[in-house]
Amino acid sequence: MKPSTNQIYPVIWHNDSVSLIDQTRLPNEYTFVEIHRSEDMARAIKTMIVRGAPAIGVAAAYGMYLGAREIETSDRHEFLDSLDKVAQLLRSTRPTAVNLFWAISRMLKAAYETLGTVEDIKQTLLQIAQAINAEDLQTCQAIGDNGLAVLPTTPEKLTLLTHCNAGALAISGALDVVRSAWREGRLERLFADETRPRLQGAKLTTWECVQEGIPVTLITDSMAAHCMKQGLIHAVVVGADRIAANGDTANKIGTYSVAIAAKAHNIPFFVGAPLSTVDFELADGSKISIEERDPTEIYQIGDTILTPEGVDFYNPAFDVTPAELITAIITENGAFSPGELAKSKLKQLV
Q: Looking at 40, 193, 241, 248, which residue is catalytic?
């Protein structure tokens, strides 16, 4: 077994700018994009250069600082009005990922509560963005360890299934649990759904596993139920983009199907996500805004058109898995059944 060492950082503050791993070029090219302006950060979030709810939150926080840095006024009220416009721009990029809105709200709160000059506010915003980044990186290990504690005790070595990518490239999530299981000798193999239409499982999850020496097998989305029936899967671990107060969870399209299949085969289904992904203001998943993306993601691969002219398209990027299909939600504060999420909030306040 190879010890797991996570050296993948999708968002880095460096030389007075933000470096993002360009996730649209993986796995063939491991390159970085330098971001100096808030508009460029908004574009990077929208085009999924940076993706995964926690990473989007960190990127948005730095985007708020970059936007603040661009505001040329010493008048506090003018500055805050302009900062609100930066927040609106960033909020418009990805409507489903709650970490985006959480990070922006935290940055705005810091700006309004900071006394002193406009330059003092700007410096505070940089410090808060860096704090959000550091906190999320610390969350990874906690989610992994808490997930390890609730995985099935038998067999000794588990085969897990995941959907989409919720690992180091997203900062924290399902692959933290996989990584901890591998480190402790509890993981036999990870099965990764390809995750149509953007293939985050095929391109990103497998890439991360290969970097860390974790055994991984890629399957198409339509193979998950078959693998479960064959006894190949002991548990499912996925990430989340938004979790309602009752535990309903929005994640990459196809997650709901995997949850239904897991329930039918009596396989535990876990969600790994930081508490910042839980939207306690949202009673249930029926009110979660579902992003619909460009239909080219469905009908085109590279330069190849897959469909005839005249076809209509529907391309929702996420679906909502009902709480009753979820065994536990694994956070940095522990693993909770969907009905116990309120306890996780109370634990956070202690």
A: 241
